[in-house]
Design a protein that fits this description.
The chain is 30% helix and 22% strand. The chain is α/β, with parallel strands linked by helices and 316 residues long. The longest helix has 24 residues.
Length: 316
Amino acid sequence: MDTSFRETSTLRRVQDVAYSHLSVELDHLYMEDFLLGEQHLRSRIEQVAPWFETAVRTFEARRPSGRPRVSTCFLVDDYFSNLIPPAELLPMLREAADKGGVRVDYVARESACAQYEGVEVAAIVAGRLVSVPVEGTDGSRPPVAESGWLSNGQRSPSGPAEALRMHAWQPPVEAEARQHSIFVDVQLWSEKDGERLWSCPMLAAVWQLSRLGLLRDHGRTIIQPRPLPEDLPAEWSAMPAVIQLNRSAAPFHGYCTLSLLDSRFLGIEHAVRVILDQVTQDAEVMTRVVQRALQEGMRVAQDVTGRIAYTFMTDF
């Protein structure tokens, strides 16, 4: 695994990571889903399996130069709830995956997308947000760093009711809309008693950046996979951010990502793309990833959202 440091043109040291060609997320379940038992988990994996097999075949067919490296991962929600300890959940997941014929290479903790080993991961990403500039904005809304809200355009004017009655109502406008607007306003966090609670879309945006190998803190990679501990702890907070279950797995990070998700996550992932379109990326890291992919005969999009694909599943 290549995790070396490289000197950039500005003498800033940037850590490299190893890459698969594709990182596939095998569904996303809440802790409450795991409480339904192994049979429910197995049925979910059996639903994912044909989509995963089709995606891998399609990906391989488009790259005839050689068999691409594909890794799989599973994100466990230990941020909003912590109902089942690792010692119970991980064996259940592995057994269900084995019976369902799907390999799970890595398991990640969602709480590590918020904070990990003293690094405020979500706050780093939030600090790189640059809101979409919209013509005619009057500055009445506080900046995203204060409000915790991010949109993909211009909101409807707001103000006292009397003032609004003097002017015709104006609808929100999506930036760079095609004919008509699809306006989205995303809450990035809430606060209670001085504690910040990150939203699902914000954590999912961090998760995508992590899988793409783009997260850095002063040039250093924040999240790297670690081996499965021999003795599983009682608390998720004692687990690594990403646990490698399969010793022969391809690298966790991918040039591109594919997420196989239940259709209930469609709205969240729309919000994720709104966020990622407004996150300023580390130019050195982005350039390095493009160069490494080209060396392997693979072209990746210049923008982050162009490297992310989805399949939304439902019972039919």
